[in-house]
Specification:
Strands 2, 4, 5, 6, 9, 10 and 11 form a 7-stranded mixed β-sheet that branches. This protein has a 4-stranded antiparallel β-sheet with strand order 1-3-8-7, with no helix packed on it. The chain is globular. Strand 7 (68-73) and strand 8 (78-83) form a beta hairpin. It is built from no helices and 11 strands. It is mainly beta. It has strands at residues 4-7, 10-13, 18-24, 33-39, 46-52, 58-60, 68-73, 78-83, 92-99, 112-113, 117-122.
Length: 123
């Protein structure tokens, strides 16, 4: 089992920035892919970004492309989501996810999930 814990959420004004972190409980050599997802109240969980550890390939949803950047620190078990030019519609609970084998920008391809961290963007 891989345990994931997100940190870095909070409240920010429109146009501001936040950096989310996701720490994994074990060295990420067992992990093929990690991603970020979000869910706003009353809405379905939405894919935000993914990172394939083997190839370094990244993919973003259209709603965050050009504003968010997914990355990882290869020296430890941490993945990041740098969020710039935040908008009110970015307000949601953000979840970190990991999978040992698959990698695609959809929740059904991830087997391990963190508890989430709240991001609130106010105007």
């Amino acid at each position: 089992q891989v345990q994931l814990v997100e940190t870095g959420g909070g409240s920010v004004q429109v146009g501001g920035s936040l950096r989310l972190s996701c720490a994994a409980s074990e060295y990420t050599y067992n992990i093929n892919c990690m991603g970020w997802f979000r869910q706003a109240p009353g809405k379905e969980r939405e894919a935000v970004a993914r990172l394939n550890f083997g190839s370094g390939f990244t993919e973003y949803s259209d709603s965050v492309k050009g504003r968010f950047t997914i990355s990882r620190n290869t020296a430890d078990n941490t993945m990041y989501l740098q969020m710039n030019r935040l908008k009110p519609e970015d307000t949601a609970m953000y979840y970190c996810a990991a999978d040992r084998f698959r990698c695609a920008l959809a929740a059904r391809f991830f087997e391990f999930w963190g508890p989430g961290t709240q991001v609130t963007v106010s105007s």
